[in-house]
Amino acid sequence: MAKLYAIFDLDGTLLNTLDDLMDSMNYILRQNNFPERTRDEIRKFVGNGVRKLVERAIPEEYKDDSTIIDKFYNNYSDYYKAHSDIKTAPYPGTVEMLDELINNGVEIAIVSNKIDSAVKSLSAKYFGERIKSVIGEKPSIRHKPEPDMVFMAMEELGATKENSVYIGDSEVDIQTAVNAGIPCISVLWGFRDREFLEKSGGRIFADSMKKLTEKLMNFSKA
Predict the structure, then answer these.
(1) Which residues form a coiled coil (predicted)?
(2) Are 117 and 136 in contact (CB under 8 A)?
(3) For 102-129, what is each residue's pLDDT tens digit?
(4) What is the CATH number of domain 17-82?
(5) Concatenated DSSP letters of 103-121
(6) Can you list the residues of the chain whose pLDDT is less than 50?
(7) What is the rounded CA–CA span in Å between residue 101 and residue 59?
């Protein structure tokens, strides 16, 4: 059996973070007397990093105002760091899925466009030492869909393109895998539906933790 390295997205893949993302954004919007966003709007806005989330959430007339965007980015980042784990929880079966992979020799990383400090704290709380490399958004490295963070995780794991798989729930994850030159498994319990993911180039899908485990183990046998 070939050694396999599974590199996971976080939000919408391992953790359901949507309510905390929404609550934090709406708090900052309220502080500035801007209209709040719905859960469905936030679900569609996330995936391309914090700054892009801010740009999408603020009113249209401010979307080209770098001063407003910078202010919102800083305020949101600070608030979310302190409120990133109020309603957040792993999707059912996530920890068991990770344990089964580890028991079969798979090494695991997380690569996320979420703020790096939040990624590390959430990973440590919910997954402990199961995750061998944890990388989030920070100024020193280009974020997804650029492949840089995936390459950093692969280097930390000692992985190669030939034995790595990326797992995520969005079009950003699909493009990240393409840019990194590795396969992508798109999960269907996250922030995007299958039709959208297929239109975005998705080819391999998992609609349950069991199916995801099976597909990953098939990669390890290839």
Answers:
(1) none
(2) yes
(3) 999 999 999 999 999 999 999 999 999 9
(4) 1.10.150
(5) HTT-EEEEEEEEEHHHHHH
(6) none
(7) 44
How far from 165 is each of 8, 35, 59, 160, 204, CA to CA, in Å? 8, 40, 38, 10, 11
What CA–CA distances, in Å, run from 18 to 48, 75, 90, 161, 190?
A: 14, 18, 12, 31, 9
- State the residue for tokens 């183990």: 217
- Per the DSSP assignment, residues forming a β-bridge with 204 are 185
**Phi first, then psi: what are they for 134, rounded to 5°?**
-130, 115
Residues 154, 6: Cα–Cα separation, whole Å: 10
Instruction: Provide the pairing of β-strand 107-115 with 184-187.
Output: unpaired
**Burial class, 212, CB count within 10 angstroms (exposed 0-12 / middle 13-18 / buried 19+):** buried
Is 0.90 surpassed by the pTM of this model?
Answer: yes
Name 23's Cβ contacts closer than 8 Å, sequence gap at least 6. Answer: 83, 86, 87
> 5-16+88-220: what CATH class?
alpha beta
Domain ranges of the chain: 5-16+88-220, 17-82
Structure tokens at 32: 């500035």
Residue type at 193? D
Cβ–Cβ under 8 Å, residues 108 and 131: yes
Residue 64 burial (CB count, 10 A): 9
